[in-house]
């Protein structure tokens, strides 16, 4: 029954959150391992081109469907009455219709681009795998709305990082420096493996929509597009920064910023784990108007964010010499960029879990406006920073964009009379 997940015991929610945290940690560790191996094995130009092409492909998986699947939870929860099952089935079917139409247009565009601009073949080949990743995104979102969160999310989190890591590790064991085509084929293979993993972990697609359930396609798309900026900034942070940096940086510079992002992303993951672990309790405290309990939860969340920043930054500085030895001399600038990118978890700690409060209070307008402002700022700051200051400039632009995003969320909470989530919030 759709919506039954809302009544699950807190213990079940905590267990689910624990598995999700472990999966995200494993994915971050595998991605970091792949990045370190590629930094040693592949020429910076090959590494940077693969990183940019893969990031564009994964971002395109969101745009391919206009994020229609992004509102799955909303559409599952809002349906009621005797036609609820038919209405949701109509929405579900329309997600796959949009996916098929978008995939056909994308593949035709890739073929045309490869013919007209042969120099763009890496991006065209990477985009050829995008429908597979878009399919996994649709199935994972729908699974979450149908109370199959782990079955949908775990394969999506783990499969691509694991397949690419194993492939690159095999090249390392063989003493072979992978060429660009081999890396792009790994990206495609990971998409196929992800499709197979979802086929095994999720039940077969249910019946088609019942007669009389007319799909509200425009409503589905409006909801998905409204949620897209926030989901892109949160779930696709690394891919977004790399794709934007590729607009103004050479492939070798993209490789540098990719390494720096992989190092800092572990700190951001540790901070986001606080939201995963405490999100359900924060939502419950807000719904009960439990001011004392909410204050304690927000204080704990801020402490986790600040602790992750301090421990992560100290570890990065302490391990600078071993990391430089591991990465090699060509990637020495990446360590300096990692220090700049520490500004992202810094602003995350300064403004606290503002986005979590917006989400818990279902203030969709505030969420959309702050995310749109952050996405616009990032879209301008990263390429402009790259043009003006190279890879360090692009890193500084990323920090500026995310600072604006986090500040906008924090300010929206203050305007709405919500609790102050900032690090310097006064107790009470």
Please sum up the structure shown.
With about 425 residues, this protein is mostly helical.
List keywords for this structure.
single chain, 428 residues, mainly alpha, 2 domains, 17 helices, 0% strand, disordered N terminus
Radius of gyration: 22 Å
Average pLDDT level: 87
SSE run = HHHHHHHHHHHHHHHHH
Briefly note the structural class of the backbone.
mainly alpha
> pLDDT below 50 for ≥5 consecutive residues: which ranges?
1-9
Distance between the termini: 40 Å
Shape field: globular
Domain count, please report it: 2
What level of helicity do the residues show?
over 70%
Number of strands: 0
- Our count of helices gives 17
- In terms of quaternary structure, the protein is single chain
Organism: Poseidonocella sedimentorum
InterPro entries: Poly_Biosynth_Transport (IPR050833)
GO cellular component, one term: plasma membrane
Keywords: Cell membrane, Membrane, Transmembrane, Transmembrane helix
């Amino acid at each position: 029954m759709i919506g039954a997940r809302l009544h699950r015991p807190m213990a079940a929610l905590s267990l689910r959150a624990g598995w999700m945290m472990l999966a995200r940690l494993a994915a971050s560790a595998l991605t970091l391992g792949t990045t370190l191996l590629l930094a040693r094995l592949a020429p910076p130009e090959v590494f940077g081109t693969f990183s940019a092409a893969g990031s564009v492909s994964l971002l395109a998986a969101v745009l391919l469907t206009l994020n229609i699947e992004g509102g799955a939870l909303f559409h599952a929860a809002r349906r009621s009455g005797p036609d609820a099952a038919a209405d949701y089935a109509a929405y579900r079917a329309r997600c796959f219709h949009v996916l098929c139409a978008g995939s056909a247009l994308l593949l035709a565009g890739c073929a045309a681009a490869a013919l007209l601009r042969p120099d763009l073949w890496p991006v065209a080949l990477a985009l050829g795998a995008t429908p597979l990743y878009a399919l996994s995104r649709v199935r994972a979102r729908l699974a979450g709305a149908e109370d199959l969160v782990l079955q949908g999310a775990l394969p999506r989190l783990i499969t691509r990082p694991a397949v690419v890591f194993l492939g690159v590790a095999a090249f390392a064991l063989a003493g072979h420096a992978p060429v660009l085509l081999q890396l792009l084929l790994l990206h495609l293979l990971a998409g196929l493996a992800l499709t197979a993993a979802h086929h095994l972990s999720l039940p077969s697609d249910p019946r088609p929509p019942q007669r009389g359930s007319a799909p509200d396609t425009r409503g589905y798309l409006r909801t998905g597009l409204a949620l897209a900026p926030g989901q892109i900034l949160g779930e696709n942070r690394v891919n977004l920064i790399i794709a934007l940096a590729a607009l103004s940086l050479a492939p070798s510079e993209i490789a540098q910023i990719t390494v720096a992002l992989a190092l800092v992303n572990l700190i951001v993951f540790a901070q986001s784990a606080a939201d995963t672990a405490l999100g359900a309790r924060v939502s419950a405290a807000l719904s009960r108007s439990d001011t004392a309990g909410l204050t304690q939860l927000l204080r704990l969340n801020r402490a986790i964010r600040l602790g992750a920043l301090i421990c992560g930054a100290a570890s990065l500085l302490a391990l600078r010499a071993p990391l430089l030895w591991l990465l090699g001399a060509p990637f020495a600038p990446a360590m300096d960029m990692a220090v700049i990118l520490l500004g992202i978890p810094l602003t995350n700690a300064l403004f606290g879990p503002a986005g979590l409060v917006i989400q818990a209070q279902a203030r969709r307008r505030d969420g959309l406006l702050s995310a749109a402002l952050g996405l616009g700022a990032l879209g301008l700051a990263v390429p402009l920073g790259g043009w003006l200051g190279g890879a360090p400039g692009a890193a500084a632009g990323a920090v500026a964009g995310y600072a604006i995003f986090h500040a906008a969320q924090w300010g929206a909470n203050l305007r709405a009379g919500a609790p102050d989530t900032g690090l310097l919030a006064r107790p009470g």
